[in-house]
């Protein structure tokens, strides 16, 4: 099976023959080594040196130089809005306090659809409307410096008396 051994970021993508594409949701875009099949049927082994977040518009370089395009799949999300910038910042704080991955835009925040969080947002005066679109959450403060993405591990107390780890 041919291997994809290199990730090429969208902003560094030059010329190359794109032979297929993979359409992946947010959860499936954090990978290092996995067998994949493109939409056009090309089977290959993703075999990167380290786990990476595959972003919409990136490409995977196959051993023979051909490329496989990465596309973010539409997902069921909540589009969160508020009456003004201050109110939206307050909602972002509450979402962040729950360690929820979020995509932050100028006028809206997107999170994975969750009816409990939708009610929390509405209870705080915001709107939370279901939408279907690709999810591109923030990479986080401890994300990989080169790509601006990644995951981190931390331990802390949530002031609620419980202590736990996050991966």
Automatic annotation (TrEMBL):
Pfam families documented for this protein: UreE_C, UreE_N
Keyword RNA-binding assigned: no
Subcellular location: Cytoplasm
Ranges for domain UreE urease accessory N-terminal: 3-68
Compositional bias segments (type: Low complexity): 139-148
Family label: Belongs to the UreE family.
Name by which UniProt lists this protein: Urease accessory protein UreE
